[in-house]
# Entry
Amino acid sequence: MPKIDKEMVQFEKDLLQSIGEMKRGEHAAVHTAEQIVARKRGRPVGTVKETPKVSTTIRFDADLLEALKSGGRGWQTRVNDVIRSVFIPDTREEAVALARDLVKAPARKGKGVIRAQVVGEKREAIRRR
# Structure
């Protein structure tokens, strides 16, 4: 009589249990052909912003880009806030302060960390306007 591996016995039990659950529809929704045809393409309503950000390409000097990235994650959002201040005058004063904080950001472990709380508060003040 061949020796039966315990792992294979457990695998067989688990597989049979999974098949039974699948047939009963316990772990997955069962869709009819009509439901599949009726589905609309694209993202569900309400999951896309009304004014999404637009991808673009911009060229910076190497030293400027390094300084911007030294602030760590979120540097593109911070740059967006500063540039917004140039074209939307109501946010200019706060953004100038934010830009100063970006320049003064100390580099740590190669990536850099901006005083996140201070910058975050200033960013929120800009967005609230």
